[in-house]
Amino acid sequence: MKKETMRQRADIVNKALYRIYSNIEADLTVEELAKDEGISAHHLHRIWKEETGKNLHETIKSIRLQKAANLLLSNRYANISQIAAMCGYGSQTSFIKAFRSRFDTTPNGWRNGGYLAYSDSILASSASASASERGFEGLIPKIKKGPKIKAAYVRHKGYGISIKNSWNKLYAWALQ
């Protein structure tokens, strides 16, 4: 197979990400994702690493755990086993181990306020953020040009007036 263009490589990554997000509860294999694109698993790993700078398996694990963290807060009636299954984990034990490794608390701890401690630890890791007492009320976002970075996927659900202005500014900047 001839070398893909940058656009084709980005499309491969985006299609794989779409499939991962759409089927996060399934036991996705790299071989299945690669087969969808007509490439080898090794080639998909290589493209993924070059385009995103991250490991494919770690990306899938991260997406699963982000979904689990959200479900733990938004789906109070589901038990831990159900949430583990919704996020593609075959056993509650492996889910709890992965969750604790990522968020430094158990899923039950997260549900019972652990997310607040996690947020505080993120803020504490930034000297300027932890020193700031500024609120976010009435904040109008500004888009600033920064150094080039590789981006593979941007997703947003819903459009209210609060996000519309930001997206319009982002679109106008992209057209420049």
What labels would you give this structure?
mainly alpha; 176 residues
Describe the structure.
With 176 residues, the chain is mainly α. 64% of the residues lie in helices and 0% in strands. Helix 1 packs across helix 3 and helix 6 (92-103) runs parallel beside helix 7. The longest helix has 19 residues, at 56-74. It is flat. The relative contact order is 0.09.
Strand content: under 5%
Radius of gyration equals 19 Å
Shape: flat
Order of helices and strands: HHHHHHHHH
- Tell me the distance between the termini: 35 Å
The main pleated sheet reads as: none
User: How many DSSP helices?
Assistant: 9
Q: Name the assembly state.
A: single chain
Low-confidence stretches: none
Helix-strand blueprint:
Elements: H1 6-22, H2 30-37, H3 41-52, H4 56-74, H5 80-86, H6 92-103, H7 107-124, H8 127-131, H9 161-175
Helix pairs in contact: 1-2, 1-3, 2-3, 4-7, 6-7
What's the quick description here?
This protein has 9 helices and no strands. It has helices spanning 6-22, 30-37, 41-52, 56-74, 80-86, 92-103, 107-124, 127-131, 161-175.
